[in-house]
Amino acid sequence: MRIGLHVNSAGRTLDELVAEAAAAKVDAVYVNETVGWDPVLLAGLIGARVPNVQVGTAVTLTYPRHPQALASAALSVQAATDNRFVLGVGPGHKVGIEPRFGISYDKPAAHVRDYLTQLRPMLDDTTGLPGVTRPKLLLSALGPVMLGIADDLADGTLLVWTSAEGVAELVAPRLHDKEIALTALVGVTDDPDAVRAQLAAQFQAGNLPNYQRHLARQGLSSVAETAILGDEKAVAQELRRFADVGVTELVASVVGDRERTLATLS
């Protein structure tokens, strides 16, 4: 199982982000779509300055980007990073898409299937880019319909808020020899209960309908319940559990003691 690091780009300079990526000593660095930076461009800028590390988006939004425009950007980043780019895409959430972009969020699964059907062959077309290969394409998917689309049209899925049991029971059986990348809150701490309580108060992502359904399918009520917390030994054991159930890449969003957590991850 590869280990990646989720880098929060909001309000930060490129030099800060590059320094964090270079110091992390992980296999991959991922950025997501937030205010400010364009995630595809930012991944390329980081990858061009930090050698020997995979860079990717987890995720960039499909609704506001034409497939051809996204394919061109992704292939350009793939060229700039010596084929080290992973394109993670997803439809986002109704509450974020409609007010921000003025685009209807109606039938997101149908939108995603149509989008990937167009995007996939465009990523294969590397005309004019010598030495460039198609970037890996991952789809943010949680429910059975979206996981089916990931199995049909992508190289795998990008998960969030998923326990090891959830991966084993809900995700792995629906994918066939595909990548399972999981973004998880990871923290080395001597007081996991206190950190988990802080996370439960801090993270309101579980209020979004897509995430509520995914948590409910796992018998969970809070995203904090999916966090990987404990001392070095406990965190390492939990990471091995995820590898055992089929996770091919765990992307850590660091909480708790950052220095100890990064040391354990590396």
UniProtKB/TrEMBL annotation:
<protein>
    <submittedName>
        <fullName>LLM class flavin-dependent oxidoreductase</fullName>
    </submittedName>
</protein>
<dbReference type="InterPro" id="IPR011251">
    <property type="entry name" value="Luciferase-like_dom"/>
</dbReference>
<keyword id="KW-0560">Oxidoreductase</keyword>
<dbReference type="Pfam" id="PF00296">
    <property type="entry name" value="Bac_luciferase"/>
</dbReference>
<dbReference type="InterPro" id="IPR050564">
    <property type="entry name" value="F420-G6PD/mer"/>
</dbReference>
<feature type="domain" description="Luciferase-like">
    <location>
        <begin position="11"/>
        <end position="248"/>
    </location>
</feature>
<dbReference type="InterPro" id="IPR036661">
    <property type="entry name" value="Luciferase-like_sf"/>
</dbReference>
